[in-house]
Amino acid sequence: EKGGYAHFMLKEIHEQPTAIKTTITPRIVDGMPNLEECGLTYDRLKGYNNIFVVACGTAMHAGLVGKYVLEKIGRVPVTVDMASEFRYRDPIIAKGDLVILVSQSGETADTLAALRMAKERGAETLSIVNVKGSSIARESDMVLYTHAGPEISVASTKAYIVQLSVFYLLSFAIAYAHGAISKEECMRLTAELQNVPNMLEVVLKTPDNCQYVASQLVNKENLLYIGRGLDYALSMEGSLKLKEISYIHSESYAAGELKHGTISLVTNNMPVIAVATQRELLDKTISNVKEVKARGAYVVLVTHGYINVDDEVADYKIGLPTIDDLLMPMLTVVPLQLIAYYTSVLRGNDVDKPRNLAKSVTVE
Ligand code: F6R
Description:
The chain is α/β, with parallel strands linked by helices. Helices cover 44% and strands 16% of the residues.
């Protein structure tokens, strides 16, 4: 059942290229995103001027990537909330706003309650859900299924990456519908997205660098993940994955915010995983990386393979293939998943069933 892999988590990490293909291929027609299956025509997409994304945990992290991408190229304001916060903060939702619910299981109690509230307040609701016929899928006005197949490991991997792929298609489509990008640009980005599965196969062929990093982390009790922009959103996902299955405490931090307090934690006993794939922000992030390195941190830098990294910046580099910066999260998440996985294995934990956690959180 694990197809020769030691754990479901590792199997599911390796299923990611196929899961992406299955999710995006039917939704690309003549090189353009096509989401008409749920009524999302370009005309309809043009009408959304205010978007909310509501979800929990890893699904919420996918929403954060969605926000960056949508705002960057679509110029439409997007607010991301954890469902457990959104429900109780009396959010200002107007008729005609779009509320997007993201959920692997489609049964998460807080996300379902947020959906019901959004509907009551007259918003249009779109769910991005993996489990067919689940409550969130049934109750939302529109649904775009992710086609990850069953996810058994409690720690979510392939469900996250397909959620990202749907956010990309949606963002390209909304950006085009709003006239924020040309048809050519929309087609170029869509083609880039179609390249991701093959590039991921390459990333998955070299897990030994992540195994090495795991061997450096295994005896630590605290860790920091840092990044800016999209890389910060990825840091959050990397940190959650590690915490969840390795039981090492970790925190993700916006790199530029470190010096406002958190850098006082940095010593030679606080490894830092720095994510720096956004080339516009590279110099800024590298200067923050040097600051933690100068305070004795063991630094792992996750960046483009072609970028040279000297000793004063990082102790170890994980190099990724290069794709449009906007799409780098699709590649970057994989080493973060693998680092968490191998660290958990080395610590002898029950990787697929971490303590205190359930696959589907149906109580609030
Ligand atoms: C982390 C993880 C959780 C879920 C969260 C939402 O690996 O699996 O954070 O992402 O409980 O679950 P769904 O997506 O089913 O709503």
